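request received
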Amino acid sequence: MKRTISLLLALGLLSACKAPVTEPPSALQRAVASARSLPPCDATVPMEWPASWPIPAKEIGKFKIFFYPLRAAETDSPEVYSPAAEASIDAAQGTPISCGLTPSSSTQLSKTRWPAATAGLNLKDFEARARRLYDRTEAMAALYDGRRNLSALEKRSVQEFLELFESLAEPALLSDYYRLNPDFWEWLRTAAGRSIPPAEKRK
Amino acid sequence: MKVRLSLAALAASAALQAPLALAARRPSSISPEYQPICRYDAPLCAEYQRLSDKLDSLSSVRIALGGSRTQADAETLAALQKDYAALLEKAQELIIRKIVSSAEKEPVLFDPAVLLKRRLASACLSVVPLRLSEISDALVDQEMRLSEIEKAANKYGRYLPDSTRKELLEKLLGVNADGTRLWKHLQTASLDLDHVGAPFVDPMPTEHFQSAQNLLSKANPLAGRIADLSRRLQALDRLLGGGLAPPEGALQADTKGVEKKVGGMLRDPFGGESTPGGESKNVRFRFNPAAKPAPADTLMGMRHVPSPQTPTQDGKHFRTGKISENSDRFELLTVTLMQALGLTEKLGDPDKRASFAFEQTGGTCGIACQVEVLEEAGLVQHTWKARKQKETELYEKAVAKGIFIGAVKEEPRRRDEGGLLPAYSGDLLGRPIRKHYAAKDDELEKVISQGRMVIVSVDAGILRNNPARLNRGHAIVVTGAERSRLSGTILGYYINDTGTGIGGRFVLIDQFHQAWHKEGSAFVEPL
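response:
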């Protein structure tokens, strides 16, 4: 009997400690996440290949992503392979526009997936940071579409985007991010004075 | 826990057995153990007494007659279930009232449903050991009879005289009939074992579950021996040309679905129905072309070997995976407490289905999930080796069809680094399926509530609460759900994860939804 009463008290206490509801993902985040399960990607890209972070494309309102194999080892740090597929996303529609496998064979690049800056982050913190990156990416796309000189405030926003991107983008795949749209990265370099290094030729 | 009572009330012998039943009945006054209920609720007290008497009489008759079922049994059972459900509802009201009314300082929180369950459980625990030892003894006899037939058949080899062959076949039919009766008795005992309840769900003493576990560990080997008897019978029938056994290696889908699977701790091999125009084409009668194949509900006609339930991996019925894999530990604790208080119920059959789980090789989660579905349908044997063989067979089929894509074409790298295309999930099952895209939460809930097992795509990072795996799709099998008896809402789903090889893991509803929505809220429902 005492056991039942203690269980009920504990139950009441726990109900009061319910975790707060998390913020829903942005339209771009939803579009990237569900790209694999929608045509034409669902018949091109295996579900095991994670999508990269999106990069603004040259076309207004469009984004580019790639998919890369991640070896399914039961360790905390799965092995990263070079991208094996690419897709264009329409953020407003929330759907992929095109999807294709890359012609070259995938090679193993690294045994570490995320940058050192993410070490110690739990899933909730990681996702919160990712949500911020998606928001900033959308803001960057809007600036990039205008291709104009940036104000001081906008330059700060670009800096913030770059910091977030560098803290979340897979270090082994930076060249592949550059390859997705070199024009975007060079525009960043011109407009804000900083960008990721140009793509290196892979051995 | 569903309450079922198996009782024997054979009409013909009812009159004969009545004195026995009456003799076993207790006086109709309510036991002091159950008195508090009468302080709370007089009508409930009366109803409890009525039901208690009924249970007494039914248990006594059943014990006296031993196990077989009739139409009358089924009707009585249905009536009893109805009574039980009504009583349970009242009991819940009573509990809630007690919880809410803190001013009432009654020392006892009383749940008559628990008492009823205890009554049922103790009745079953007293009957089952007796039945199992009877079955075991009778089985030894059948095995010896079969050995004698085998010896006689092998003695002559190819030169077996026709008269001897016929004589042996007759003996074989005798073993078949007796063996089938044994199997049915074992099924009854297995169903009775269900009444003992489940830890966490039913608050009963630990010894109670230990006794049940001991009984299960006795029942399972018996099922294995009966399966072996069936195999030997069929092999002998083929050797002697009886034409009754199905062709060697014949497997047949279990078309009766989930209802059958949730009944009894052992699987029922008699559910298989003939596929129209199916196996008969392959049957070659060497000796007796006029003979018709034996009915599926006999040992001789079995289409798949009955698989005894494999004990769940750690013997627990509520597994949560690693604590770190759960997104909200407070919520998890809340559900655990609700379970301990009997405020939740299980949907589907996660405990039994947990035994289908195995670890995939390479990026074959989408394929391994289909193997589990096939195993549930009785199309893959209940062994690790059979599952791995099927996984490889389906993998090769998927590669040939071009629906398993690898980053390179060389093996084993293709298998390690590649995966199944989401558009073709479920297509290797070779049986009807329904695919749900961008499904609503209640769509999945409805299917799981019907007891079905489905394949869903989730984000592996969210499922395991681990950023290292974030954004990586993963297929898992949903085997059941835990529902609140108070609010009727789903508190979480049970899954089998071939990535870890763990079956029956409980995942909180919010975490599950996040992982599932992120991969497009798709699922495959085998029909």
